[in-house]
């Protein structure tokens, strides 16, 4: 009979997590798979799981945060920065502590990123029903708020008996470490069961080294894709996050150079090919470069590697609608989106096999020359936007000019900067203008485009890459939504450089609102309902972001020009703790170069002439692009 050890459910859970390991692919060293646990203790997890984490605090560090959603964002960013090879767990109380995780769970699900969520849950015994923070379902006594996690988890389980961990934990590890299944795992932990003891087999806690296996392609899939490329004259690669996580950067470069195929990138795939490579077209789609979008519009074959093909990449399925699409993806659900040829495989192995099958084949020489010329033109456009220049007196800078200043602030030895962003105007500006030579040097959460991810995500990135300079760029709206992890970064000694672009509202959505014919309303502070008695002569509240950051322990300053920003950035780089720089910006100016059509529905009926005109243009665009879905029963075009 095998030896056993008596532990509570929570103690067994924590001991199991501490035993999971991974081998570093570069050094060969064994590292903990879980770098730690973010925890905010409360009713439902402090007694059981809190005591268990205390016992294992030297093997599995516990980090205190200030907001449940934010600490999950930090954990997710940590996994993304580690290319999904290492991860973190997150635990909360029951009730609001648990439901605060839902946004982050959805974010991880959309982005195919691993995080282990451990929310407390109500009593299984029901002896004290209803307990504090318990939601009561009048028709189902088994329901708690944690059932909300079912739709935003790749694997969900509620542990109602301690021994259920014997099957639940291996399943959880499989999902978290499998490239095709990867995403959030939720194990709901009822507070009474956390404290119940069980005689566990000791071998359950043996150290286990997780291997991240790469799925090879099927020969017939490779043959079909190779034939489609041989029949093509104007192919383009579109590389996404799956290629980044597969560490396929060298394979992408080899394929592009060997076969003369230009490369465009998604938000998640940016950085796979160095920005200055002669076949680097830049980003594709709505936030895309002129080079990428011009060639994609004329492409006859698009090889989409490790991408979900979401609407910002495809221009709402209109950008390269006349091209055959070959998808190379480890996830079968994503591989099916192309509709033509699918290769179900790891991005690196699939590209290498496809290159071998193609042999000496190359894309049309004129196409390759056009791509190289377009790539060089795009580099010149970016130089013009981000280069140092004097603005007219009284002119506020815009995002592109600030991005240029941030990039100029590093020297040649600091090209390993990591920029972090998520929402608003900056994803478009950064995707077009940020230059990186390093996979992972561009960390954008744009699958869920979650306001508030930025600072928390920056903390997670810094925890994963402590030797890199992590620069968080965000707008005033995102800052006000979720900023408390500045205090956590100071507390943990993980320095960030935070650049707040203050345009006094939601500038991105204000422009979209007006582009759809809407009146400026409820986005910019100028256009919101205000109490003029409480503010200045213009009625708009003045927010001192630098003072706020200093109150949380960071160093901070407000600057008034690009020249002052450059000086502040030098001070920020020399600082030893988190440093925030705030600067006022003009939300009306944007980078107009690049981009493509995006399907944003405009009301069919309005008493505003501007909306009716926007609707007319919207219908005309859909008709021209061939995306109009048909007619209503009364014969009118349905949008």
Under CATH at level 1, the class of the largest domain stands as Alpha Beta
User: How many E-type strands?
Assistant: 23
CATH architecture grouping of the largest domain:
3-Layer(aba) Sandwich
Radius of gyration: 26 Å
CATH fold-level label of the largest domain:
Rossmann fold
How many structural units, i.e. domains? 4
pLDDT average, as an integer? 94
Largest sheet: 6 strands, parallel
Strand content: 15-25%
Q: List unreliable stretches of 5+ residues.
A: 629-639
Task: Describe it.
This protein is 36% helix and 17% strand. It has four domains: 4-210, 3-Layer(aba) Sandwich (Rossmann fold), CATH 3.40.50.970; 219-373, 3-Layer(aba) Sandwich (Rossmann fold); 387-584, Rossmann fold (3-Layer(aba) Sandwich), CATH 3.40.50; 612-639, no CATH class. The model is unreliable at 629-639 (pLDDT under 50). It is of the alpha/beta class and 639 residues long. A six-stranded parallel β-sheet has the order 5-4-6-7-9-8, sandwiched between helices. Helix 3 packs parallel to helix 5 (102-111) and helix 3 (68-81) crosses helix 18 (453-464).
């Amino acid at each position: 009979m095998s030896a056993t050890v008596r532990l509570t459910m929570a103690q067994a859970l924590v001991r199991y997590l501490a035993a999971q390991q991974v081998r570093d692919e570069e050094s060969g060293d064994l590292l903990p798979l879980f770098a730690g646990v973010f925890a905010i203790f409360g009713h439902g997890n402090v007694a059981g799981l809190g005591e268990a984490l205390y016992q294992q605090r030297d093997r599995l560090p516990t980090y205190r945060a200030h907001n449940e959603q934010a600490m999950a964002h930090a954990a997710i960013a940590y996994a993304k920065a580690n290319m999904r090879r290492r991860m973190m767990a997150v635990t909360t109380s029951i009730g609001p502590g648990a439901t605060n995780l839902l946004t982050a769970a959805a974010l991880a699900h959309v982005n195919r990123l691993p995080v282990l969520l451990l929310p407390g849950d109500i009593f299984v015994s029901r002896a004290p029903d209803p307990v504090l923070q318990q939601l009561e379902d009048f028709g189902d006594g088994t329901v708690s708020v944690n059932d909300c996690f079912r739709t935003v988890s790749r694997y969900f389980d509620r542990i109602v008996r301690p021994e259920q961990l014997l099957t639940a934990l291996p399943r959880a590890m499989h999902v978290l470490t499998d490239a095709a299944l990867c995403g959030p795992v939720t194990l709901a932990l009822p507070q009474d069961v956390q404290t119940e003891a069980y005689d566990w087999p000791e071998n359950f806690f043996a150290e286990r080294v997780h291997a991240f296996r790469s799925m090879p392609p099927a020969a017939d899939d490779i043959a079909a894709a190779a034939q489609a490329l041989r029949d093509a004259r104007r192919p383009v690669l579109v590389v996404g996050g799956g290629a980044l996580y597969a560490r396929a950067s060298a394979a992408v470069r080899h394929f592009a150079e060997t076969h003369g195929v230009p490369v465009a990138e998604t938000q998640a795939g940016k950085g796979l090919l160095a920005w200055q490579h002669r076949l680097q077209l830049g980003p594709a789609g709505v936030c895309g470069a002129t080079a990428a979008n011009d060639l994609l519009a004329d492409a006859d074959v698009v090889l989409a590697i490790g991408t979900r093909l979401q609407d910002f990449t495809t221009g709402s399925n209109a950008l390269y609608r006349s091209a055959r699409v070959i998808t190379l993806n480890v996830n079968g659900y994503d591989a099916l989106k192309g509709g033509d040829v699918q290769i179900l495989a790891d991005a690196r192995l699939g590209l290498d096999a496809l290159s071998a099958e193609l042999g000496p084949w190359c894309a049309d020489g004129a196409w390759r020359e056009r791509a190289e010329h377009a790539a060089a033109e795009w580099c010149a456009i970016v130089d013009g936007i981000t280069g140092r220049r004097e603005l007219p007196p009284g002119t506020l800078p815009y995002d592109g000019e600030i991005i240029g200043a941030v990039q100029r602030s590093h020297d040649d030895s600091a090209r390993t900067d990591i920029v972090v962003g998520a929402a608003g105007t900056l994803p478009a500006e950064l995707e077009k203008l940020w230059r990186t030579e390093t996979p992972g040097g561009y960390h954008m959460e744009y699958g869920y485009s979650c306001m508030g991810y930025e600072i928390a995500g920056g903390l997670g990135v810094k925890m994963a890459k402590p030797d890199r300079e992590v620069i968080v760029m965000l707008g005033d709206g995102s800052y006000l939504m979720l900023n408390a992890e500045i205090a956590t970064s100071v507390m943990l000694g993980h320095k960030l450089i935070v650049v707040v672009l203050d345009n006094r509202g939601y500038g991105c959505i204000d422009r979209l609102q007006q582009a759809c014919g809407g009146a400026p309303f409820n986005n910019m502070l100028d256009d919101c309902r205000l109490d003029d008695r409480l503010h200045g002569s213009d009625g708009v509240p003045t927010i001192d972001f630098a003072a706020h950051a200093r109150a949380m322990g960071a160093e901070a300053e407000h600057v008034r020009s690009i020249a002052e920003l450059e000086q502040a950035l030098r001070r920020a780089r020399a600082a030893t703790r988190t440093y925030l720089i705030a600067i006022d910006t003009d939300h009306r100016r944007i980078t107009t170069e690049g981009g493509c059509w995006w399907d944003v529905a405009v009301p069919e009926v309005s008493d505003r002439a501007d909306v009716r005109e926007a609707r007319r243009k919207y219908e005309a665009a859909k008709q021209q692009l061939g995306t109009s879905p048909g007619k209503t029963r009364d014969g009118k075009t349905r949008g």
